[in-house]
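Human:
I keep going back and forth on a fold encoding question. Comparing notes only helps if you start from a blank page. Show me how you would write down a chain together with its backbone fold. Write it directly below this note and I will take it from there.

Assistant:
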Amino acid sequence: MKVGVLGVGSMGQNHARLYADVAELVGVFDVDKSTAKRVAERFRTKAFDSLDEFLAEVEAISICTPTVLHHDLANKAIETGVHFLLEKPFTGSSVRAEEICRLAEDRDIVVAAGFVERFNPVVSAAKEAVANNRFGEVISMASRRVSSLPSRIKDVGVIMDLAIHDIDVMRYITSSDVNSVYALGGKFSNSDFEDHINLLMEMENGIKCFVEANWLTPMKVRRVSLTCSQGFVDLDYMTQSLEVCSTRFQEIDPGDLFHLPLEQDVRRMSVRKEEPLRRELESFMRAVESRGRAEVDGWEAVADLRVCEAAYDSLKKGARVDVLSASF
């Protein structure tokens, strides 16, 4: 399959690296010609000088430009009949995302949304286990996605950059959309966008979810946990590890509450480690080849963006906001 990468900053370079390995990387395009040339030389492909010329040579592309350009470039791809994966946060607006999805469906264009954590092996393992009731009933989920501010992010805040990943994973694992959001956060060291956020969400199926995200923490943490009726499940996105903890009390001596007869069992589920982005791009290409719906399509992005918009609305109002009635 003839593929290309539109925008070869940090994320785009990783798309190019993997496409060069799993497909025919026809070329790259970036407004920064020197960067495009350097990336093209590294992966032995062509740096196009013209966007129109670039789109005329490819069947499918990844769009990895700054978010503010996503909507217009997605429209351009649709007009020229090119299938595309649009990196998160997709268009940054649920209304514009809907426009893209409807137009793409009318033109029979495959659209994938770049929510890479969906393709993390530990997320896949947790999804399958929950679906098969291996942990019992899911009661709540909590995530922590924190690190220092990445210099490459200049046009969105931490909700659209980080929290949206866990919103998407929680919707996926619980098989439920978000009903309401309450947000607390703000700007601490960033004058333009929120740099720390805490979201309390209630899913339509009653599961309660908590998301913590910030650009203020010196170390990088990427974890999510599930409290279930038959145990506690902890996922580490970075190490791709999954642990299940369960406990059992024996007879308690009411006169000695210091020494509790607690039996704890911690099991690590076997997960085959794979690069999530590789799995994502391979899934996208399979959808293009079959002209089927992408595994994570644009409508999934619409749902995630609606939750983000409700979070911004809640942050502004200082109140819980129903997702479908949010104003942003």
About this structure: The chain has a mean pLDDT of 93. The domain at 2-115+278-296 is CATH 3.40.50.720 (Rossmann fold).
